[in-house]
Amino acid sequence: MHRITSMAVGAVALSCGIAAAQPAFYPARGQSPERQNQDRAACESWARQQVGPAPAASSPARAGGRVRGAAAGATAAAITGNDAGRGAAAGAVGGAAAQRGARRQDRRHAAATQQQHGASFGRAVAACMQGRGYTGG
Fold this sequence. Notes:
Layout: H1 2-21, E1 25-27, H2 33-51, H3 65-80, H4 84-131, E2 134-136
Antiparallel strand pairs: 1-2
Helix pairs in contact: 2-4, 3-4
């Protein structure tokens, strides 16, 4: 259930980001629809040059959390004189939880970076279009 909710929230956020990237501009100097399309294409090209390429959609997957946790747990148990097998099992559980948290943090960071890039791109397009005689954005 939690995964479905997270996916739904992500889909809504993505659609909002797309909507924000396509602001409406109105011709203040009577530009034709063809001219508007030309100006928008030129401004989007210029904006891409200004803000750079969009950030990568995903980061490399983190792996090995259980193995690292098991190794740490077994080591700690051996040092303290406890059962290394139980220490490894407990460490594996902790390592998996830490790995999930790190992945969640990676996804949040990637989403924030993409949102910031989209906002910068939108501001650049708006500035260009306003410079060409359009209002809105």
